[in-house]
Amino acid sequence: xxxxxxxxxxxxxxxxxxxALLTSRGIPFEEIDLGFDTEQRKxxxxxxGRSTVPQIFIDDKSIGGFDELAQLDRKGSxxxxxxx
Length: 84
Hints:
By secondary structure, this protein is of the alpha+beta class. The chain has helices at residues 13-24, 38-48, 66-75, and strands at residues 4-8, 30-33, 55-58, 61-64. The chain has one domain (12-81): Glutaredoxin. The chain is 39% helix and 20% strand. β3 and β4 form a beta hairpin. It is globular, with a radius of gyration of 12 Å.
């Protein structure tokens, strides 16, 4: 089973789109709402080199944000994650 984690923030349109895409494909995911958690944001920036959300990890590997997730979907690469 693959583990998908989506780091989000309140009021983030791209976060909503990423979660909607994963849900529409039947891919279960864990959402971590960073809110105002500066320590988590710092860790995420150090880990990914990015300060934007969403940041999506599949099996502890950063795949990027919504644009990268959508690109994987267009290529058909998300199929292997469907259903967990």
